[in-house]
Structures are given as C-alpha cells and as structure tokens.
Amino acid sequence: MNITAKYCQKEMEEYGSCVASNPSTWQHHCHELKMKVANCTSSHPVIQKIRSSCSKEFVEFEHCLRENQATPTSCKQHVARFMGCAETVDLSGAESRIETPVPQPS
Fold first, then answer.
1. Tens digit of pLDDT for each residue in 1-48?
2. Could you give the dihedral angle defined by the CA atoms of residues 10, 14, 19 and 20, in that order, rounded to the nearest 10 degrees?
C-alpha cells in the first residue's frame, strides 16, 4: 500500500475519496477509479513482485470486498494478511528495474 501510494498517490487519493463518499455503492460508483489505480500499479516492478508473491492473500482480500460491498471495513483481517505478506517479500532487484524517464532534447 505504501508503495502504491508512493507511485500512484493521485489515483489512490481519488479512489479512496470515492469509496469513503459511497460506502454502500462504492464497488459500482468507483470502478473507473479502481481501474486507474490498477493501471498505474500494473506496470510497476515492485508492485508486480508483491502481487505475484502474495497473490493468494490479494485474491482473498478482493473476494472479501466483493462479498462485503456495504461494509468494506469487515475485510480488515484480509488487508492485514496481505500487508503482512507484502512486508516479507524480498524486493531486492525489483526497485533497480524501475525505469527513470530520460530527458529528451527539445
């Protein structure tokens, strides 16, 4: 989550605001913003490694959210399990694959 916030802060803030503003219908109302977050993070090497290493926990968390659309806070344990897994992932090498934009001559 911290990594996602670091690299996709704007998208995360917009999505979080939408979810908070639509507690019982966020799954429907915030879908486009959720996709923006997904698009932002899908190409990031660090996030790819975490999602790959913790795919079981991530899928369980997403399933919980789908099952508890009106009460997403009931998925706190799923979030904790995913975060616990994410903290154990060896990220050495992943951050070195982050592409830094090269300035182009104008």
1. 566 777 788 888 899 899 889 888 888 899 999 898 888 877 778 888
2. 100
